[in-house]
Amino acid sequence: MVSSGSTSMKEKTSRTPSRWDVPAMAQKVALDIPDGSYVNLGIGMPELVADYVPENREVIYHTENGLLGMGPVPEPGKEDPELINAGKKCVTAIPGACYFHHADSFTMIRGRHIDICVLGALQISEEGDLANWSTGEPGAIPAVGGAMDLVAGTKTIYVISRHNTKSGDPKIVSSCTYPLTGKAVVDRIYTDLAIIDVTADGLFVREMHPEITFDYLQQQTGARLHR
Amino acid sequence: MINKIVSTPAEAVSTVKDGSVVMISGFGEAGSPIELIHALIDHGARDLTVISNNTGSGHVGLAALIENRQVAKMICSFPRTANSRVFPELYKNGEIELELVPQGTLAERIRAGGAGIPAFYTPASVDTPLGEGKEERVFDGQKYVMEYALSADYALVKCQTADRYGNLLYNKTARNFGPVMCTAAETSIVQSRNIVQAGDIDPETVVTPGIFVDSVVEVADPADESKLVAEDRRYPW
């Protein structure tokens, strides 16, 4: 069972050496998004991916509240409360963007029209199960949003997440203990230690932080890794 | 002559009854018909089931309707946001019921309700806690859960431009649930920033055809919910 982070444990993690920072993780995701893709970025860390897409690639961003062709955040003073993203933050629309209602937006998602979705995670299992909407704690207000539809319908699911929780526990586990968002849905995991593919034959390490060993990576992971 | 225009939000919501099922458009603040919701607070109908993506912010709009104890049950996908204080409190105390629905399933249940489709199968929520207890079927080797359509007695919707027939245009991402909610309610009530002459909206660009709308009230300058929340305003004022 993964425990929630106490302050003392947090300090321990922050001293851990040799991890990619979040921009470096976002950049690695961005490099794997092909030219011409339709992409949905989850709230939080996934949003940063848009900052690192190479300039010679055209990527169209979908936000499930009803915009295809989402642009960057507006200049100060140009915010429009009726032009927002799924995280309810003000955004802009690129020339050529379009608006649509929610049923059409989830037709794009569930109907497998979106190429790639990048999501955050609480836990990922070795079979690609994703838990990212609830810790299942008693008394917590459950809130799911569009996560279950996104993992059920998007062609490719990338997860971007720190390798360990704040208390140092592995987020990649043999079996999720948190409530699932979807079963066997994740295709690739980008962490601060490695990039890992989820395949029918298990978890395969594509790339590791250059300063760590495979044994160290395995030790930080709650499921069997292959190379 | 058809004329769906009414003069005040109070008149527009006057027939809502205790126990009504009410859909309320909006994704957070964007598209939330705050003046119609405030009129519903003044009107006082209680024991409502409200279908809306969120549960409101601060102490205005949908949050104020809930705080005024007029809502018995919420059907929504994301009941907590940065500024939602009212719903979490009542929910923790067991004073309001919640049916949590994945966002796309919520949209499709409403669409189905408006389209005369009683139920459908979706892959969303299969093998998760939100899929538990639902009828499952396998199509082409993939599992799906059955979801029932949602319909309502009333829809309260915000739009940008309307005419006397109830043809509607929306503004940017404030469109969100408005078009499907108009189709799924017995009575759809719309607040519009502008009301124009029939024929002024290009038929090629109409988003909600007027047949789905029952009444339209002009609210030329709707309140900016985030400003009210920042000022900690409370409704009733």
From TrEMBL, chain B:
Keyword Transferase: yes
InterPro entries cross-referenced by the UniProt entry: 3-oxoacid_CoA-transf_A, CoA_trans_fam_I, NagB/RpiA_transferase-like
Keywords: Transferase
Highest taxon, organism lineage: Bacteria
One GO molecular-function entry: CoA-transferase activity
Gene3D superfamilies: Glutaconate Coenzyme A-transferase
Protein name per Swiss-Prot or TrEMBL: 3-oxoacid CoA-transferase subunit A
